[in-house]
C-alpha cells in the first residue's frame, strides 16, 4: 500500500510519502520519504505611480535652475522585501535642461523592475527688455527764422535682454527733418517672448531768435518784483530745455552768456524748491557738454555758472534741506548733517565698481557717489575722487549760532573743467617761454570736487590751523607722447564782484600716497579742488630710446663695476696698494648710485620709498665725486650733506615724476655747492701736481726721475679722464634740465651717465699695467706648467724615469713664480 503515487500533484512544501509492504504472514515493511515542492520567483516587482509624462518645472529667464519635487513610484512583489535605488530624490536642485530619473526596484530573488521618467527645467521670459539712454528730456534744435523744418540729432536708446532685444520700426531717426513745433518719437523694443519696452520722448524744433527771446524774457521777468514760485520754476525749466537744444549754444557763444545770465536771475530770486534746483543742475550739466573753445571764443567766464549752481544749492538748503542728483557731467549732494554723528571727518566720494579700473576718463559714475560719516572708511583703492572735511570745521558753526544737528554741507563733483576757465594764467604758465607754448601746456588733469559750508548768514572758507581738507584724485590718463613736468594741487579762486576766477596753489600742498594712481591734496580752505599739471609733448620714439640707453648702459656699467671689485679684492698685489682702496670705494659708490638710480622710478609717488631712494641717490652721487678727489674724509662730507638736507625737510626729496631733491635751496646748497667745490678743488690739485712734475729740480737720477714722473703723469691722466667723463655727464644733465627743447643734451647725458662704470673697468683694470703684467705672469705660468707636463710625459715614455737634469732650463727662468702665484 502507498500514500502517494508517482506523477501525482503535490502541494508546495513538504509531503511525506509512505510505502507499506506485507507478506503472507502479515509481516510488514515500510518505506517513508519526503517530497518537497519549492517555488522559483522570476517575476519582477510590480511598479505603480511611475510618471508617464516628464515632470516639468518653469523658471524665470536668467535663472540657472530650481528645486523640483514629485510623488515617488512604489513597487510590490511576492518575494519581499523590495528595495529601491534612485539617482535623484524629490526636492533636489535641478539645472535648466532635462535629466533622466531612474528608480530601480529589486525583490528578494534579485528580480528587478525599473521606472524611468524625465525632469525638465525650462525657462519662461516674462521680463521686458531694459532700455538705456532713453532721452526722456527730449531732443531739440533751433533753425533760422523763415525755415519750416530742421534736422534733429539725438543719441539713440538701446535695449538689453537675456534672450535678445529687437527694435521695432520707430517714428523717427536721428538726422531726420522735423517740422516746427513738437513731434513725439516712440522706440519699441521686443524680445522673442513678445515682451515689449517703450521709450517715448518729444522732438522740438524752434527758431534761434525765439529761444534767445525766451531767455531775454526770463531775465526781464525775474528782475521784476512780486515774482511767484511758479514763475521761477517755469523759468528754470525753460533754461534747462533751451541749454539742451542741439547746436544752439555752439552756434553763438553769446547765447551761453544769455543762459548764464538767466541762471543768475533764477538764483537771485532766492527760490529754493526742488522744481527750481533740479533744472539748474541740468543746465550746468548741459553747459559742461560744450567745447572749451566756445567759452574761449566768447570770453565767457564759466565761473559765473559755477557760482550760480553753488548759490542755488544754498537757496535749496535754506528751505527744503537735502538734495542729491548725479548726471553725466556733474554730481551734487547737499545735506544737513548732525555734526555729533560725524567721526573724524565728513567725506564724499565717487566709488568705482570692483571690476572697473581706477583711472577714469572724467565721467561721473551714477549710483556710486556716497557720503561717509567717517572719512577713514573710504575705500581709496576704488576711489575716483573724494574729499574729507574735518569734524572740527563742522563744529565751527556751533559758535556762529547754527544748530549742530543741521549743519548745511554741499559736495559737488564736476566731470570736466569746461566751466573753470581761468581769467588769468598761473605763475608757472606765465613763465613758459614763447617758443615752448606749442609743446608745453598746463591743464587740469582730474575731476573737480567741491566742499561748501554756507548758511544764510555764514560761509566758511578759511579753515583753522591743523584742520585741512583732504582731497583724493584718481589720475586721468595722458597721452603717451606727453611727459609731466609739474603736478600741483590747486583750488579755484573766484571773485564774485568781477566774475573772474583762476586756479591757485595757495594753501594747498600735494601729499604722497602708496597708490601711484592716486594724488592726495591737503588744503587749508574750502572750495573747488583739482590737480593741475604742466606737460610737454614730444616724440614717443625719443622717450623710448632714452629709456633703453639708460637702462642697458646702467646694467652693463653695474656689471663692469662688479668685475672691478672682484679683481681688486681677489688679487693681493692690487688690494695691498693705497690707490686700490680708493678705487674700491669709488666703485662701490658708483655701483650704489646705479642701483638707486635704476630702482628710483619704482618709488615715484610713494612717500617713504621716494624719500629713501632720493637720499641714496644724493649720498652716492656726492660720495662718488668725493672719492674722485681721493680723500676718504669726503665720504663723511657726502653723508653729512644728505643728512642735513633730509633733516631740513624730508619733502625736499619728493617730486611728482621723479625722486630727487626739489629745485631750490636744498638742491643749490645741499648738492650743487658741494659738487662745484669738489670740481674746483680737484682742478687746483691737478694743476699743482702737473706743475710740480714739469718744474721740479733734478734731485735724483734721470732714470728714477723719469719712472716716478711717468707714474704720476699716468695717475693724473686717469684722474683727468675720470673727471672729464664724470663732469661731462653732469654738464649735459644740467644742460638738458635748463634747455628742455634740445634733445641732444638728453641723449648725451643718458649715454655718459650710463657709461661711467664701463670707463672705470677699462681704465682701472684693462689699461692698468699691473693687471696686464699679472695676466701675462699667470698666462706664462700656465704655459710653463703645460710644457713641464709634456716634457715629463715624453721622458717617461723614452727612458722610463726622469732625473733633475731632464727638467727644462726655462722652468728656472723665473724663480719667483711660485711666490707670485
UniProtKB/TrEMBL annotation:
Region (Disordered): 786-821
G-protein coupled receptors family 2 profile domain span: 546-768
Cellular compartments per GO CC: membrane
HYR domain: residues covered: 1-39, 40-123, 124-207
Biased composition range(s): Low complexity: 794-805
Subcellular localization, as worded in the UniProt entry: Membrane
Molecular function GO labels: G protein-coupled receptor activity
Domain GAIN-B residue range list: 354-539
GO biological process: cell surface receptor signaling pathway
Membrane topology, as annotated: Multi-pass membrane protein
Entry keyword set: Disulfide bond, Membrane, Repeat, Transmembrane, Transmembrane helix
Annotated Gene3D superfamilies: 2.60.220.50, Rhodopsin 7-helix transmembrane proteins (1.20.1070.10)
TM helices/strands, residue ranges: 545-571, 583-604, 677-699, 720-738, 744-766
Pfam family name, one: GPS
Main location: membrane
InterPro entries: ADGR_G7, GAIN_B, GAIN_dom_sf, GPCR_2-like_7TM, GPCR_2_secretin-like, GPS, HYR_dom
The protein, known as: G-protein coupled receptor
Species per Swiss-Prot/TrEMBL record: Stichopus japonicus
Native organism taxonomy: Eukaryota, Metazoa, Echinodermata, Eleutherozoa, Echinozoa
Amino acid at each position: 500500500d502507498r500514500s502517494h503515487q508517482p506523477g501525482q500533484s503535490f502541494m508546495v512544501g513538504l509531503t511525506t510519502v509512505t510505502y507499506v509492504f506485507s507478506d503472507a504472514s502479515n509481516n510488514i515493511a515500510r518505506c517513508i520519504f519526503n517530497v518537497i515542492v519549492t517555488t522559483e520567483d522570476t517575476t519582477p516587482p510590480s511598479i505603480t505611480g511611475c510618471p508617464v509624462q516628464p515632470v516639468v518645472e518653469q523658471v524665470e529667464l536668467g535663472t540657472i535652475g530650481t528645486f523640483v519635487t514629485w510623488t515617488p513610484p512604489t513597487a510590490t512583489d511576492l518575494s519581499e522585501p523590495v528595495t529601491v535605488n534612485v539617482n535623484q530624490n524629490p526636492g533636489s536642485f535641478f539645472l535648466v535642461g532635462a535629466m533622466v530619473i531612474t528608480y530601480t526596484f529589486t525583490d528578494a530573488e534579485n528580480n528587478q523592475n525599473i521606472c524611468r521618467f524625465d525632469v525638465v527645467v525650462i525657462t519662461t521670459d516674462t521680463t521686458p527688455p531694459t532700455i538705456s539712454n532713453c532721452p526722456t528730456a527730449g531732443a531739440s534744435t533751433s533753425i533760422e527764422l523763415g525755415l519750416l523744418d530742421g534736422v534733429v540729432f539725438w543719441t539713440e536708446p538701446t535695449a538689453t535682454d537675456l534672450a535678445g532685444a529687437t527694435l521695432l520700426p520707430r517714428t523717427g531717426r536721428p538726422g531726420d527733418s522735423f517740422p516746427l513745433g513738437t513731434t513725439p518719437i516712440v522706440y519699441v523694443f521686443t524680445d522673442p517672448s513678445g515682451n515689449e519696452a517703450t521709450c517715448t520722448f518729444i522732438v522740438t524744433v524752434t527758431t534761434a531768435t525765439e529761444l534767445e527771446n525766451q531767455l531775454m524774457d526770463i531775465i526781464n521777468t525775474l528782475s521784476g518784483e512780486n515774482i511767484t514760485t511758479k514763475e521761477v520754476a517755469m523759468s528754470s525749466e525753460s533754461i534747462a530745455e533751451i541749454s539742451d537744444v542741439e547746436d544752439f549754444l555752439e552756434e553763438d557763444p553769446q547765447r551761453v552768456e544769455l543762459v548764464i545770465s538767466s541762471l543768475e536771475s533764477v538764483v537771485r530770486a532766492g527760490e529754493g524748491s526742488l522744481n527750481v534746483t533740479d533744472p539748474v543742475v541740468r543746465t550746468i550739466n548741459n553747459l559742461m557738454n560744450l567745447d572749451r573753445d566756445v567759452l574761449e571764443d566768447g570770453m565767457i567766464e564759466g565761473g559765473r555758472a559755477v557760482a550760480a549752481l553753488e548759490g542755488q544749492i544754498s537757496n535749496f538748503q535754506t528751505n527744503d534741506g537735502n538734495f542729491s542728483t548725479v548726471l553725466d557731467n556733474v554730481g551734487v549732494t547737499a545735506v544737513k548733517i548732525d555734526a555729533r554723528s560725524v567721526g573724524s571727518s565728513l567725506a564724499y566720494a565717487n566709488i568705482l565698481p570692483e571690476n572697473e579700473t581706477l583711472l577714469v576718463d572724467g565721467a561721473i559714475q551714477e549710483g556710486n557717489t556716497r557720503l561717509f560719516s567717517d572719512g577713514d572708511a573710504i575705500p581709496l583703492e576704488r576711489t575716483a575722487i573724494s574729499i574729507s572735511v574735518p569734524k572740527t570745521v563742522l563744529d565751527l558753526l556751533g559758535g556762529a549760532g547754527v544748530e549742530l544737528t543741521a549743519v548745511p554741507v554741499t559736495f559737488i563733483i564736476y566731470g570736466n573743467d569746461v566751466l573753470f576757465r581761468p581769467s588769468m594764467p598761473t605763475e608757472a604758465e606765465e613763465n613758459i617761454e614763447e617758443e615752448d607754448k606749442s609743446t608745453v601746456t598746463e591743464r587740469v588733469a582730474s575731476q573737480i570736487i567741491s566742499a561748501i559750508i554756507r548758511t544764510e548768514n555764514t560761509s566758511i572758507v578759511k579753515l583753522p590751523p591743523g584742520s585741512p581738507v583732504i582731497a583724493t584724485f584718481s589720475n586721468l590718463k595722458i597721452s603717451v607722447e606727453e611727459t609731466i613736468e609739474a603736478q600741483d594741487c590747486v583750488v579755484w579762486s573766484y571773485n564774485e564782484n568781477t566774475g573772474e576766477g583762476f586756479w591757485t596753489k595757495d594753501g594747498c600742498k600735494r601729499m604722497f600716497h602708496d597708490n601711484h594712481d592716486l594724488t592726495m591734496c591737503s588744503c587749508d580752505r574750502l572750495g573747488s579742488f583739482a590737480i593741475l599739471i604742466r606737460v610737454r609733448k614730444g616724440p614717443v620714439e625719443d622717450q623710448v630710446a632714452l629709456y633703453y640707453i639708460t637702462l642697458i648702459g646702467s646694467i652693463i656699467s653695474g656689471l663692469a663695476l662688479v668685475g672691478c671689485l672682484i679683481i681688486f679684492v681677489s688679487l693681493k698685489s692690487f688690494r695691498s696698494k693705497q690707490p686700490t682702496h680708493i678705487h674700491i670705494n669709488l666703485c662701490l659708490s658708483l655701483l650704489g648710485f646705479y642701483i638707486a638710480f635704476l630702482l628710483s622710478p619704482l618709488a615715484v609717488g610713494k612717500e617713504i620709498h621716494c624719500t629713501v631712494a632720493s637720499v641714496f641717490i644724493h649720498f652716492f652721487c656726492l660720495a662718488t665725486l668725493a672719492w674722485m678727489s681721493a680723500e676718504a674724509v669726503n665720504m663723511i662730507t657726502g653723508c653729512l650733506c644728505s643728512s642735513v638736507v633730509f633733516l631740513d625737510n624730508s619733502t625736499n626729496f619728493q617730486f611728482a615724476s621723479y625722486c630727487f631733491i626739489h629745485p631750490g635751496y636744498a638742491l643749490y646748497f645741499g648738492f650743487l655747492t658741494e659738487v662745484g667745490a669738489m670740481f674746483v678743488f680737484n682742478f687746483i690739485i691737478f694743476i699743482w701736481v702737473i706743475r710740480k712734475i714739469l718744474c721740479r729740480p733734478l734731485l735724483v737720477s734721470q732714470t728714477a726721475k723719469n719712472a716716478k714722473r711717468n707714474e704720476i703723469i699716468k695717475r693724473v691722466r686717469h684722474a683727468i679722464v675720470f673727471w672729464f667723463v664724470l663732469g661731462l655727464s653732469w654738464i649735459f644733465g644740467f644742460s638738458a634740465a635748463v634747455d628742455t627743447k634740445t634733445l641732444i643734451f638728453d641723449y648725451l647725458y643718458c649715454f655718459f651717465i650710463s657709461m661711467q662704470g664701463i670707463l672705470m673697468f677699462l681704465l682701472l683694470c684693462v689699461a692698468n699695467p699691473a693687471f696686464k703684467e699679472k695676466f701675462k705672469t699667470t698666462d706664462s705660468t700656465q704655459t710653463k706648467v703645460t710644457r713641464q707636463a709634456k716634457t715629463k710625459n715624453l721622458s717617461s715614455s723614452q727612458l722610463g724615469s726622469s732625473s733633475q737634469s731632464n727638467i727644462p732650463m726655462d722652468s728656472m727662468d723665473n724663480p719667483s713664480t711660485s711666490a707670485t702665484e
